[in-house]
Amino acid sequence: MQLTISNLNKTYSNGVHALKDVNLTINQGMFGLLGPNGAGKSSLMRTIATLQEPDSGSISLGNINVLTQKEEVRKTLGYLPQEFGVYPKVDAITLLNHLAVLKGITNTTERKSVVEALLHKTNLWGARKKNLGGYSGGMKQRFGIAQALLANPKLIIVDEPTAGLDPAERNRFLNLLSELGENTVVILSTHIVDDVKELCSDMAVFNKGEVLFKGSPDEALNAI
Ligand code: ADP
Ligand code: ADP
């Protein structure tokens, strides 16, 4: 599975040219998208996630045309936006069970095993009965991963995940992400160089809507 982005352009109605002829080929594993605030990272992530339309260009995920086969993409996409809402008065295991039903996992035995495995994987088993409103930032992020994994995604998009996490939470979150990267395309959008350096085999540097660099983190550091 490969994500291919070709000649992508987006100008917002306020005249901001947020994506300028973006071309990227992203393979399975962890891909870092690095750039300062305002670079266009979220615009690109939202476009790949079928949440907004580009003005021109194309995106394919394997043999799926992302811009026209939106339902196909959504079925296989795990999207973790920068800040996602949680229902504060529901506990993790209850919400995951409900979400699993919505994803079509209606068989009780299957659902139980899927939900329990995700809670263990994300290290939330001990807090499964705690209301999400009482979760720390890192726990919410890990719950976001559990939720994203319900879809059995081929593509996971993570937008600025480590902002506001303490170092221990950050490490736990990043380790979890790197495990996922093995047979999935994981795109990590961030302005933190270390996140990319530690985890990603491949990366791009973005600024003012343009790809300035494509390659490995080692090559990027040598180029500076
Ligand atoms: P990043 O995620 O790298 O911070 P964004 O994609 O959010 O970058 O923003 C890129 C540029 O596009 C910024 O100048 C931002 O203000 C602008 N922008 C983003 N979303 C919109 C929008 N919906 N309408 C108008 N301008 C936008
Ligand atoms: P980011 O995480 O990329 O910084 P923001 O928090 O700036 O995104 O954007 C939040 C929402 O506001 C998004 O839906 C985005 O499309 C919109 N937005 C961002 N920048 C602008 C802008 N300059 N003008 C209008 N809408 C914007």
Automatic annotation (TrEMBL):
Entry keyword Transport: yes
Domain named ABC transporter: residues: 3-224
Domain of life: Bacteria
GO function terms (MF aspect): ATP binding; ATP hydrolysis activity
Keywords, sorted A to Z: ATP-binding, Nucleotide-binding, Transport
Keyword Plastid in annotation: no
Family indicated by similarity: Belongs to the ABC transporter superfamily.
Name of the molecule in the record: ABC transporter ATP-binding protein
Organism annotation: Emticicia agri
Shown chain mapped onto the complete sequence: 1 to 224 of 288
